[in-house]
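Subgroup meeting minutes
Present: P.N., E.W., G.H.
Scribe: E.W.

1. P.N. recapped why we're keeping a running log of single-chain structure predictions: easier to compare across weeks, and new members can see raw inputs and outputs side by side.
2. G.H. added today's entry (784 aa).
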Amino acid sequence: MARRRVWKVLALVVVLAVVGVGGLGFSWWQGGRAQRTGTARLAGLSAEVQVRWDAWGVPHVLAAADLDAATALGWLHANDRLFQLELGRRSCSGRLSEVLGERALPLDRRQRILRLRRTAEALVAAGNEGSRRWLEAYARGVDAWVAAHRGDLPPELRLLGIQPEPWQPADSLCFVVLMAQDLGMPSSGPLEDSRYRLAAALGAERAADLLGPPDLEIAPGVLEAGAVAKAQMASGRPPFDDDPIEPPSGLGSNNWAVGISRSTTGAPIVANDPHLVVRLPALWYQVHLRSPGYEAAGMTLPGFPVVAIGQTADLAWAFTATMLDDHDVFVEQLDPGGRRVRRGETWQDLRVEETEIRVKGAEPVRLTLLASDRGPLLPADPERGLPARSVAWTVYEPGDPLAPFLALARAKRVEELPERLDGAVAPALNLVAADQAGGLLFTVVGRVPERRAGDARFAQPGWDSAYGWSGLRPRSENPTVLRPAEDLLVTANHDIRPPGYEQPFAAWFDLPARAERIRERLLGQPRWDAEAVALLQSDDASLWAKQVVAALTGDWQGDARRAYEALARWDGRMALEGPSALFTLVEHELAAGIFEDEARQGGLRSVASAERLLRALRGEMKGDWFDDVATPAREERRRVVARALGRAWAEGRQRWGADPARWRYADLHFLHLDHPLGSLPVLGRLLSMPPLAVAGSATSPSAFGGSWEGGAQRVGFAPSMRWVSDLADPDRSRGMLLGGQAGHPGDRHYTDQTHPFVAGESRPFAWSEAAIARATASTLRLVP
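Output recorded in log:
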């Protein structure tokens, strides 16, 4: 979410820059294209590396040494995704203003306050020698490509005047930190901030009702601190942007595994499709690395030097977000000088650090960074009624995020994995793994905070020593299932705690609808192969939508009755044509009719969510959310629901006619794949794709989710890639990117996988030498 905002700012800044330059030529358009044939020199290799490319631009790397494979991967990422690498490390480091100017200052302030670059550097220092050598080898590959292309850089870098600095190991771990931020720390700030604003705007009782059971605990003095800040302190520029109250629907992932008894192949099959902010270039980069001690195929995250999701000949692994509440906010009482915080009856000095943000076209900006014993200090934000607060976050704890991924590619059996995963601390991820012999494993990778007291969902008093962390729980105590009796594992960001698990585990789990639909499909068919599993990844049925319809039962009249009867006959598929359009209009009207009045009254953008809507319709909320607080009359549930059904029917009939079977969800649900420079006049059309109508929704396995803008849903969260591992025959494994392999907008592989992806297609992946030879479209030699 944070990076989505980065890209928007980048687009605005460059538009202004180009308008100012005027007659800018396009000779730079050809610069920095990927090399996929011939020979390239790469300093630091111990021997020649062969790279064979298939027709989709996917490289198969054959190296004589493990570190040569890492170096080659760095070269390949730079070859195809250098702008993506540069943007990511600058975002993490708070250095966008150096190339974008003053508009990027709020973003840089936020990242500096959160100490993200410092965190990446600390993770490098905490890693073992093997991890550091691998990171250094990868950096040599990035630097070698840049050194050979100083006068031939990709167009975005030339347009912005960026000459990349040498790649550092910390630059690679910046991408781990950014992923932790995307999965757990919205761009508006910690989740506790949004809940704090809820309670301040609507009252503690209403906020607790929205958050759901168990009852919300708010410690004495916490809310009062925000009121004091708003009343007494002068307003300043907030360090965070004003984003929605809760994480947007659609952020998450699916993964699952079927064992030997459910497979047609004689070995398990593992599937994964991470749902993240989507854009161009694609988030992932597919690769096959082969060296004496490391062989893996699958998806890499450019900047991070290993196969993150994929397989070996013996093992396959997949990840989803655990949705762990991995950070806490502590409201602080500062002394009049603002350099000490209260701790009980005494005062404790804050750590003070001065930093400078260089700004293109302006004077440098000095920034004073403060930190307490609990973590970085976020300055008070009077405009939003937020007091000064410290942040504790698992990403600040020492760990080795690379070692577990190296271990995955070197393990033979799932029983080996738990003890090899201790280096990972954040982000918390649900691992589903399988081995060729039939073993299945689910476990949470990452560490859980051991909280002393309080409600993890809400800000806590920093001055009270009863609150806080006593450390991180051992990873061995995380939820784990080894060799399940039903020979099946599914996670989809829902509550993954197995029966009998009794440890405290604070999380903001998603609804179980996606997981339940996947299980329903898997149990409904006795045997599966990789191709059938890949088709299941595109399932567009929403069990949540059917649950909403079931909650609308009533004695309706007129248009409301017509709408309800059409939905009651519907199968819940969020298809491009049919009652999916009617349901989407009804859902939108219900959310507005139930929650919009409270949001307006509290000065909030929205307080609606899929979970809250269903609870309200089922009568599971304590307050009367159907009453419109802006009117003197008391509106009842029946009236609000009837109005929503009737309005949705009337709008659909006006748009598409009287038959809801012919209504067009395709007119309401558009995927946007934008390049950060996509707002450029004329040129922007070459960088971004036109909006694409897509099936599915945030609550279906094919999870295309977003928010309403201008009478339609703008899909910004989607399956960022799809991967299926066949352990019986890796040549039958399948994958597809939402986008393409290339980062250069003029490359034929920039978006070539997009339309097949949206259509639910997948392609087999070559693993064996014979299959690679048949698939090879070009060959490149990397020589020392």
